[in-house]
Amino acid sequence: HRAVEKKWYRHWEEAGYFAAPVKRDAVPFSIVMPPPNVTGSLHLGHALDETLQDILIRWRRMQGYNALWLPGTDHAGIATQARVEEELAREGLTRHDLGREAFLARVWAWKEKYGNRIGEQLRLLGASCDWQRERFTMDEGCSRAVREVFVRLYEKGLIYRGNYMINWCPKCHTVISDIEVEHEEEEGYLYHLLYPLTGGDGYLVVATTRPETMLGDTAVAVHPEDLRYRHLVGRRVLLPLMEREIPVIADAYVDPAFGSGAVKITPAHDPNDFEIAARHRLSQVEVIDKEARMTQAAGAYAGLDRYACREAVLRDLAAQGLLLRQEPYRHSVGRCYRCGTVIEPLVSEQWFVRMRPLAEPARQAVLEGRVEFVPERFAKIFLNWLEELRDWCISRQLWWGHRIPVWYCRDCGEVICRVAEPETCPACGHTHLEQDEDVLDTWFSSALWPFSTLGWPEKTPELAHFYPTSVLVTGRDILFFWVARMIFMGLECMGEVPFRQVFIHGLVRDAEGRKMSKSLGNGVDPVEVIEQYGADSLRFMLVTNNAPGNDLRFNWERVEAARNFANKIWNAARFALINLEDYEENGAAAPEELPDRWILSRLAAVSTAVTANLGAYQLGEAARELYEFTWSEFCDWYIEMAKLRLYGADLTRRRTAQRVLVTVFRELLKLLHPFLPFITEEIWRYLPGTRGTIMLQPWPTEPGRDDPEAEEAMGLLMEVIRAIRNIRGEMRVPPQRNVPVYLVSGNAAAREVLGVGEELIRGLAQAQPVQILSALEAPPAQAASAVARETQVLVPLAGLVDFARERERLGKELEAVSRELARSRQKLANNDFLARAPEEVVARERARAEVLARKEQALRERLASLG
Predict the structure, then answer these.
(1) Beta partners for residue 323, in sequence order
(2) What angle do CA 782, 787, 788 make, to 5 degrees?
(3) Helix ranges (DSSP H) in 616-650
(4) Are 837 and 844 in contact (CB under 8 A)?
(5) What is the rounded end-to-end Cα distance, in angstroms, of the chain?
(6) CA 92 – CA 109 distance, rounded (Å)
(7) How many CA atoms lie within 13 A of 353 on its CB side?
(8) C-beta separation of 773 from 746 below 8 A
């Protein structure tokens, strides 16, 4: 693979085979690549995603579609800025030391140096993208599209600025959206605190997982129908440690079953409390800042880290007798999806997109089938998510990214939203304008990807030809990050969905089913896999056993199995080429024989099945069909059958076998090409009668090759051959020794088939002589027997086996198996074992007993056959 793969990729790219110019008379098929981060390197998730796309694009290209696979990368605002800031930190600098302009120049330089790495790695994988059309989310065209969309949405009132609860990452120092918060179940504590009622007549018990936020409480809430507290609604309690009176309010949001049924309300640090506060007109007290430290409003705790404050608050509450108890509690903790830091909910002035008006057209598009999800269950998940949709916070406190196209007049306060930078204030005419400091969420530009990459807002030929794109291939983990937002923006800006279908795949996990991560150290570098096993092996491993929407487990055994499959094809090709040295494409040949008709019929069936599975996005099933046909039917059966004629003296029969061998190999390579592009191209160039690259050959259709009679007949012959081989193996007959065989069938048609296939039976089962009979007057003594459909297969053992020695060997084996079976059954009859052993251990023992029982029965039958 090291010699083959880079050679052919370089040839394909230089020859322009991946290019998809606009052809008005051709049917388009287009995919936009989910843009990997410019900071990134290829990981197994990328490898799976790009392999699936490449299979589809190569298949459609061979079908004659004008197939465009448009690649690109994402500027990855948070990740890229963090990477460059890490470099600066090693130099003892911060971005503020450089200033915004110099820092951005440094980031662009970093992008130019490292940003092409993932593109080169995708080439190693075999990705047949139109690299001439490669885009970047911050290139000039995409940047213009971003500004255009922002201004349009702003002018329609769909973008606004306001003070709302946001998710703040204290490490990345920026807002992240709701769907960028990863919620994980973690072990913690539930703290039960005493809030004294004013008047000194008792306490309210509140429960919280974050006692440090109590310093910002502005109320205690109970459910309006909770009889325990109805009489206290309207009263006030004294906030512990702060000596501030706060009201007791009633709100239906409160869960009476949580804790004591009374909950603290901290509007500045909890999104649900923020909503409750808005309903009850409560004040907001911010006690945690953007560095996750306590503010001056926290009184004596000001300046403490939030977790240090927690310890101090608990210590002081306990000293005052106000910490009733703490108990272990498993709860959900929100973390930044980029750095893993625990998110701090804060109230902040940010830019938002109103999602409801954008979501309704998307909902209708999915309900009407204008966007289809594969698997279908993701449509329901998508629609359910729309029901709970909240406005999207799109501003980020970064320097790297699309700067918000809004300017503020320092003289009159006018807010100016323009695509191009204004020179003067339209309200007062002054030039003292300042642009908003924030940049847009990375996903804002990504949401425009299907049309911004095709030239929008210009009405380009590419946009008219390739939009809407045909299918989006992406992982289930970014269904809401990206897929939904592209549908929203496509309908809003283009008046049409961005893609017709969404093919959702799962995640690649390790062999134990765990998510791959740096902390677990279980990640696998695809580039290393390619170096060791080849891209074809990695691609085939990733696609086999892969069902849409389901996660995939990576293990090295499966990579080796894929490599072995590629070797099987390679060795079959070497065998074929050795036997095609005298091949004549149009030379005289004998009529096709039964094996030829059978393999051509099976080829037609497999071609139909693979095409149907690709059309239904069942790529794993298509790969399985090809694997079974290639390994078993073509290599293990047809090539072995063809050898009898290829090595024979009859030249016309040899030419027939050659012709069918070439025909099947050509079509099979075409079917395999989308999955294994490199090895198929290499073999294609050696096969006689081939011209040009395999990737531009027509996709196999095989009309009219179905031959059910040949398949039925070969099915019988193959069962007979297997039966004879099994008998030989069980009786340990040496491979080079012929065995006599009686084939007995009362079915005349079956006997006719056996007669036609007698040469195959003799050659593939080392059977000599072979007698085909309608009935036996007297069965041969001491014969091993089997049944293949309605045909009885008898192999006389006299002269083949030392009966006494074989009976002794089988007897000892039977005795050992019977002892093991008895022990297993005794264990399964033990109630203590059944009650105490883990379920999987019991199931394993039952399965073992079943295997031993079958083996015992087989040994008894073999002993009986020896007399």
Answers:
(1) 193
(2) 140
(3) 619-628, 640-646
(4) no
(5) 55
(6) 19
(7) 24
(8) no
Q: What confidence score (pLDDT) does residue 502 get?
A: 96
- Amino acid 31: pLDDT: 98
User: What does the block give as tokens for 851?
Assistant: 């295997």
Place of tokens 């003296």: 649
Q: What span, in angstroms and rounded, lies between the C-alpha atoms of 228 and 59? A: 68
Structure tokens at 378: 């993701």
Q: If you count them, how many residues does the chain have?
A: 867
DSSP state of 664: H
472 DSSP β-pair partners: 502
Question: What's the gap between Cα 621 and its chain centre?
Answer: 16
Question: How far is it, in rounded angstroms, from Cα 848 to Cα 853?
Answer: 9
What six digits make up the tokens of 359? 């979501």
Q: How many CB atoms sit inside 10 A of residue 737's CB? A: 11
- Token readout for 649 is 């003296």
Cα atoms in the 13 Å half-sphere on the side-chain side of 100: 11
pTM above 0.90, yes or no: no
Cβ atoms 176, 159 nearer than 8 A: no
Distance CA 79, CA 91 (A): 19
Three-state secondary structure call for residue 534: coil
List CB contacts of 781: < 8 A, sequence separation 6 or more. 796, 798, 867
pLDDT at residue 492, rounded to an integer: 97
Alpha helices in 292-376 (DSSP H): 306-319, 356-367
User: How far is CA 519 from each of CA 27, 260, 536, 758, 777, rounded to the nearest angstrom?
Assistant: 47, 38, 29, 63, 75
| Alpha carbons 21 and 462: distance in angstroms, whole number | 8
Residue 257: which residues within 8 A CB-CB, separation 6 or more? none
Distance of CA 318 to the CA centre of its chain: 50
Q: Show Cβ contacts of residue 129 under 8 Å, excluding neighbours closer than 6 positions.
A: 18, 33, 69, 70, 71, 122
User: Whole-angstrom Cα distance, residue 107 to residue 136?
Assistant: 14
Question: With contact defined as beta carbons under 8 Å apart, do 457 and 144 qualify?
Answer: yes
Distance of CA 599 to the CA centre of its chain: 35
Peptide bond into 357 cis (omega under 30): no
- Between CA 743 and CA 741 the distance in angstroms is 6
Q: What is the distance between the alpha carbons of residues 524 and 294, in angstroms, rounded to a whole number?
A: 41
For residue 40, report the phi and psi dihedrals to the nearest 5 degrees: -90, 170
DSSP string, 548-600: TT--EE--HHHHHHHHHHHHHHHHHHHHHHHTTTT--TT---PPP-HHHHHHH
Dihedrals φ, ψ of 505, to 5°? -115, 165
pLDDT tens track for 626-682:
999 999 999 999 999 999 999 999 999 999 999 999 999 999 999 999 999 999 999
What residues contact 746, with CB distance under 8 A and at least 6 apart? 774, 775, 790
Q: Are 693 and 18 in contact (CB under 8 A)?
A: no
CB atoms < 10 A from the CB of 185, how many? 9
- Measured from the Cβ of residue 197, the count of other Cβ atoms closer than 10 Å reads 16
Strand, helix or coil at 844? helix
Mean pLDDT throughout 150-172? 94
Determine the Cα–Cα distance for residues 29 and 524; give it in Å rounded to an integer: 33
pLDDT in tens, 299-335: 999 999 999 999 999 999 999 999 999 999 998 899 9
DSSP code, position 290: T
